[in-house]
């Protein structure tokens, strides 16, 4: 047997210190990614700290500034179907429901969703070279099958993409990730939470050793009137995005007052370009306007052969999703294209 | 009345409740006592040699009992013929654990056996294998220059190589008014039945084994195991009462069977070996194939020239072949034909028949090419096919034993509303979505083989019929029960079909859509022999209740022998058994097809599919919004299970056209999307409105039941109809399959 230690955390502090003091300690919540990685021989925890008893992380509560706090241990489905999320942040609700399967979403937690490892055929095959798993061994995706892979922000070491749908909406909503670690608590803006591979592809995010996500805080602006999530993939469910777009708009008098656009499936993290959003302000929401934004979002995009199509597909998806955002009632289940 | 009371009736699966309540046991679910668990270790290189295996870390794991590999194995035979199975292509079959040579990535190289599955799996991960790697060639596209003719063997009897040329193709093609040249390509596909390959071997002592195996042929596994391990045929019993899908993957014994039996014999223990999902990608598969077509037609839509060439992968050690190019001229009577089929040996495992092998590959090219010609000629695709309808098979110069394809076209087109289709040049849209309609013909050859069955009528009024045949899930169990019930005029409940056990009369492997015909005919023959015995007994019963009636004067109805002219005169079958001193009456019969008669005809099932797709104009996302498939496959035994089988075939066709492909990394020499997350099959959200029509077709040539079989025919016409519908919607012809998001931008 592959033996390991297991402890059920009684408190946040105890959980943090249990992981921080063990060389191969890991938190487990829903386990939907960790157990896969373990079975594939890609991770070898020696100590599992089970968070599921931490009831303080299982609530969704209103914040004084009009925002919403999503407990790290609330399941993805419970979050998506929560009345306050559906009412104020329907973009987040739709985005979560476009991911995985009902069974996985029932088990997967909000904190765990942020911590999914990047997807890549070669990363998931222990027998293949991979700079992320085995630094310096090379990246077979660059010359191999890279249909799923990054077109933005990649490096010569790694072209894997971050797969979470939920995080794409969180990026558009400018959520804040609250964490507690051995050094105490801190807040990380979602834009700084995930990182690009650079020369250190092994690191997917900026969490420090032993740091535990306690909640995801949403600011008051939820784009409930004009929003859309569009997920383009190889089948209508249970497939990762080839390209996805989360768009939120505030519109007054036929003009865009505030815009957010985040892309999924194209980079090692959800992709946002503030200039692309700024250029939309005071413009009428037209395909031409969204096309301008798309050009800025995709500036510098590079294909590796099989994924060349993503550049043009992303451009068109940004335009379509901008138009889909105008009237959310026309949208179809599963974040499929509409109009 | 009693004749065909069950045959032709929609009956639910007899075992359905057992399956959905988890009571049906599969090969890996027999929890025999003192079971050991084996876990297979596979090569991580593509070609080369194992130089050393360091077992120390693996052996130190508590619970590990033994580790088998090429240097630690029981004796294995050295002759190819001994490794041959019922579906072995010409060549030298793979021998698990035979030597240090690595011939393909994922080759099984060791088995770790332990007291628990977890210990075996963990220890397997600690086995340290050292290799000497050699360079390899797994890429079909860059090795086409090595394409050569396939070797001939037993397999080519059932899957004939292409017929020779007819007429003068090149001249006719040059002179044709309309010409189309197509170049098609699809990658490998793996069967991926939901049930993982598994074997549980019960060591009975005295050289006897009982083996629960996932297989499409209990007799096949029995033969293979007894040959390999030098056991008496009778001492090896293979059981597979439930099979969680096969699709051809179980037509050859897979390597977990060899490893499991080897461990059981050597350790004298009960052993189970189950593959994991990634291992399901390490053996047979639908071969990657490149196809070239050149068809020519006259201005009034008569096909004059057909050239169809296929180049497919095979392994370095066996020549797997399938019928890819033979069907165009069977369907369309052009006079100038040149066909070719070649193989490229690569460092990959031997391909294996996968649902509608060859036919689904070839028809994808043929039917797409037909639509392109129709489009050039400005003729409706259905009309074009009707103008080239083959009343006779000119490729073999034989009549069809029966052929209701025209009726498939008519009924399918009517149900679908084909007359609403717009020409490709006209744009048909719903919002941002382009709407396209496409159709395709389908054909699948009817294969005839001998089969055997036995029948027994018992004292308690039950009929027991037996055959070694398996039921891969499509309803064989139910259909065979129906056939037997009708022959003796009994209700279904009075019939028990015993199957999936090599102790029962020999059956060929379950594939090629021939099981209903082969085993159904054998059951009919056995039951008829039983009838005859029962009647003879009844004739001499006390008081001669049937008088001087001859066999043709009676019917078997409701458990009794009844005089046709006076239904009040009857003898119950249980009285016959009582007269026989309470001893049950048995009969056993082989059904040998009349090959001489069959050979005078071309025998095939036909189908036509009609498909609507929506293609998002800017984003290229495709949805098959509705489809109708009309099937002419002779007599349909059970319309309920048959409809399910055709629906499954249609879903399979959607998968071939739009989803399914095993990605091969040619630099690493291995398949890389080896799980069901990344090996994409359609999910529920991809399947919309599917409709099935069975067209009435009578055939008294093919077999006594008049049944052609329906396992493959539902697959074949679906993928080309989708490709043609996408073309009709967008004006774009994709020739590399599956069609992917991005291909239509």
Automatic annotation (TrEMBL), chain A:
Protein's UniProt name: Xanthine dehydrogenase YagS FAD-binding subunit
Keyword Ribosomal protein: no
All residue ranges annotated as the FAD-binding PCMH-type domain in the record: 1-223
GO MF terms, alphabetically ordered: FAD binding; xanthine dehydrogenase activity
Keyword annotations of the record: FAD, Flavoprotein, Oxidoreductase
Entry superkingdom: Bacteria
Organism ancestry: Bacteria, Pseudomonadati, Bacteroidota, Saprospiria, Saprospirales
EC number of the protein: 1.17.1.4
Pfam families: CO_deh_flav_C, FAD_binding_5
UniProtKB/TrEMBL annotation, chain B:
Record domain Aldehyde oxidase/xanthine dehydrogenase a/b hammerhead: where: 21-135
Name the UniProt record assigns to this protein: Xanthine dehydrogenase YagR molybdenum-binding subunit
Highest taxon of source: Bacteria
Record-listed E.C. numbers: 1.17.1.4
Oxidoreductase is among the record's keywords: yes
GO MF annotations, alphabetized: iron ion binding; xanthine dehydrogenase activity
Protein's UniProt keywords contain Disulfide bond: no
InterPro entries named among the record's database cross-references: Ald_Oxase/Xan_DH_a/b (IPR000674), Ald_Oxase/Xan_DH_a/b_sf (IPR036856), Ald_Oxase/xanthine_DH-like (IPR016208), AldOxase/xan_DH_MoCoBD1 (IPR008274), AldOxase/xan_DH_MoCoBD2 (IPR046867), AldOxase/xan_DH_Mopterin-bd_sf (IPR037165)
Enzyme class: oxidoreductase
Entry keywords, A to Z: Oxidoreductase
């Amino acid at each position: 047997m592959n033996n390991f230690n297991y402890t059920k955390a009684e408190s946040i502090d105890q959980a943090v210190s249990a992981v921080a003091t063990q060389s191969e300690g890991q938190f487990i919540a829903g386990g939907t990614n960790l157990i896969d990685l373990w079975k594939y021989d890609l991770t070898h925890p020696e100590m599992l700290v089970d968070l599921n008893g931490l009831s303080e992380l299982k609530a969704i509560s209103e914040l004084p500034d009009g925002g919403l706090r999503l407990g790290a241990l609330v399941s993805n489905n419970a979050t998506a179907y929560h009345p306050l999320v559906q009412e104020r942040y329907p973009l987040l609700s739709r985005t979560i429901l476009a991911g995985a399967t009902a069974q996985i979403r029932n088990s997967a937690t909000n904190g765990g969703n942020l911590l999914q490892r990047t997807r890549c055929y070669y990363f998931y095959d222990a027998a293949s070279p991979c700079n992320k798993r085995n630094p310096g061994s090379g990246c077979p995706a660059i010359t191999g099958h890279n249909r799923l892979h990054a077109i933005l922000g990649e490096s010569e070491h790694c072209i894997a993409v971050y797969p979470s749908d939920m995080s794409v909406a969180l990026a558009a909503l400018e959520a804040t990730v609250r964490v507690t670690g051995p050094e105490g608590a801190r807040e990380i803006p979602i834009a700084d939470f995930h990182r690009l591979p650079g020369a250190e592809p092994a690191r997917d995010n900026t969490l420090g050793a032993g740091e535990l996500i306690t909640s995801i805080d949403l600011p008051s602006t939820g784009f409930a009137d004009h929003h859309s999530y569009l997920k383009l993939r190889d089948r209508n469910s249970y497939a990762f995005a080839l390209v996805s777009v989360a768009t939120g708009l505030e519109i007054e008098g036929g003009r865009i007052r505030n815009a957010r656009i985040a892309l999924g499936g194209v980079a090692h993290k959800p992709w946002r370009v503030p200039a692309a959003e700024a250029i939309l302000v005071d413009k009428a929401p037209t395909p031409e306007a969204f096309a301008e934004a798309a050009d800025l979002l995709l500036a510098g995009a590079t294909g590796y052969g099989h994924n060349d199509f993503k550049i043009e597909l992303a451009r068109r998806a940004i335009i379509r999703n901008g138009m889909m955002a105008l009237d959310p009632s026309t949208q179809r289940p599963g974040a499929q294209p509409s109009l | 009345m009693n004749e065909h009371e069950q045959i032709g009736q929609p009956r639910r699966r007899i075992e359905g409740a057992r399956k959905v309540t988890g009571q049906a046991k599969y090969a890996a679910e027999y929890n025999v006592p003192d079971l050991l668990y084996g876990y297979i270790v596979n090569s991580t290189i593509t070609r080369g040699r194992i130089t050393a295996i360091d077992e120390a870390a693996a052996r130190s794991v508590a619970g590990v009992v033994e580790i088998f590999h090429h240097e630690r194995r029981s004796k294995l035979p050295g002759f190819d013929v001994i490794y041959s199975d019922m579906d072995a292509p010409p060549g030298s079959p793979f021998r698990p654990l035979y030597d240090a040579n690595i011939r393909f990535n994922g080759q099984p190289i060791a088995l770790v056996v332990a007291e628990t599955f977890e210990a075996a799996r963990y220890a397997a991960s600690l086995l340290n294998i050292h290799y000497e790697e050699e360079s390899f060639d797994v890429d079909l596209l860059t090795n086409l220059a090595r394409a050569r003719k396939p070797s001939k063997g037993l397999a080519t009897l059932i899957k004939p190589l292409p017929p020779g040329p007819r007429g003068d193709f090149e001249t006719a093609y040059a002179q044709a008014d309309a010409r189309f040249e197509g170049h098609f390509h699809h990658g490998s596909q793996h069967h991926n039945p939901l049930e993982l390959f598994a074997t549980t071997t019960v060591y009975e002592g005295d050289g006897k084994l009982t083996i629960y195996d996932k297989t499409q042929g209990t007799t096949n596994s029995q033969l293979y195991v007894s040959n390999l391990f030098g056991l008496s045929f009778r001492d090896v019993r293979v059981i597979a009462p439930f099979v969680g899908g096969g699709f051809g993957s179980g037509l050859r014994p897979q390597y977990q069977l060899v490893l499991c039996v080897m461990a059981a014999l050597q350790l004298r223990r009960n052993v189970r070996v189950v593959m994991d999902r990634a291992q399901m990608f390490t053996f047979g598969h639908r071969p990657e194939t490149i196809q070239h077509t050149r068809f020519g037609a006259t201005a009034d839509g008569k096909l004059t020239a057909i050239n169809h060439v296929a180049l497919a992968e095979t392994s370095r050690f066996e020549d797997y072949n399938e019928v890819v190019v033979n069907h165009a001229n069977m369907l369309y009577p052009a006079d100038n034909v040149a066909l070719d089929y070649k193989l490229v040996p690569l460092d990959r495992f031997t391909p294996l028949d996968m649902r509608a092998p060859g036919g689904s590959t070839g028809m994808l090219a043929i039917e797409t090419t037909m639509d392109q010609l129709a489009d050039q000629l400005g003729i409706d695709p259905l009309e074009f096919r009707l103008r080239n309808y083959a009343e006779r098979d000119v490729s073999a110069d034989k009549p069809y034993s029966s052929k209701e394809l025209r009726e498939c076209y008519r009924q399918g087109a009517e149900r679908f509303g084909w007359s609403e289709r717009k020409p490709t040049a006209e744009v048909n849209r719903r919002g941002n979505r382009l709407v396209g309609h496409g159709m395709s013909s389908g054909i699948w050859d009817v294969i005839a083989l001998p089969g055997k069955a036995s029948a027994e009528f018992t004292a308690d009024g039950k009929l027991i019929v037996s055959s070694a045949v398996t039921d891969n899930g499509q309803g064989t169990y139910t259909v065979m029960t129906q056939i037997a019930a009708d022959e003796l005029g009994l209700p279904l409940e009075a019939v028990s079909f015993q199957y999936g056990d090599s102790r029962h009369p020999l059956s060929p492997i379950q594939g090629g859509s021939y099981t209903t015909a082969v085993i159904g005919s054998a059951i009919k023959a056995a039951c008829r022999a039983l009838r005859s015995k029962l009647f003879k007994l009844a004739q001499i019963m006390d008081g001669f209740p049937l008088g001087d009636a001859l066999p043709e004067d009676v019917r078997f109805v409701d458990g009794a022998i009844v005089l046709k002219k006076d239904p009040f005169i009857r003898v119950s079958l249980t009285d016959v058994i009582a007269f026989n001193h309470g001893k049950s009456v048995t009969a056993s019969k082989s059904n040998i097809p009349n090959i001489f008669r069959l050979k005078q005809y071309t025998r095939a099932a036909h189908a036509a599919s009609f498909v609507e797709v929506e293609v998002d104009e800017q984003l290229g996302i495709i949805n098959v919004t509705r489809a109708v498939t009309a099937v002419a496959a002779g007599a349909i035994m059970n319309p309920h299970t048959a409809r399910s089988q055709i629906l499954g075939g249609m879903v399979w066709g959607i998968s071939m056209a739009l989803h399914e492909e095993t990605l091969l990394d040619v630099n690493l020499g291995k398949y890389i999307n080896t799980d069901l997350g990344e090996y994409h099959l359609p999910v529920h959200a991809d399947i919309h409105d599917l409709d099935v029509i069975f067209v009435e077709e009578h055939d008294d040539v093919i077999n006594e039941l008049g049944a052609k079989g329906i396992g493959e025919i539902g697959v074949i016409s679906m993928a080309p109809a989708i490709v043609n519908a996408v073309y009709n919607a967008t004006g774009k012809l994709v020739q590399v399959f599956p069609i992917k998001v991005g291909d239509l931008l």
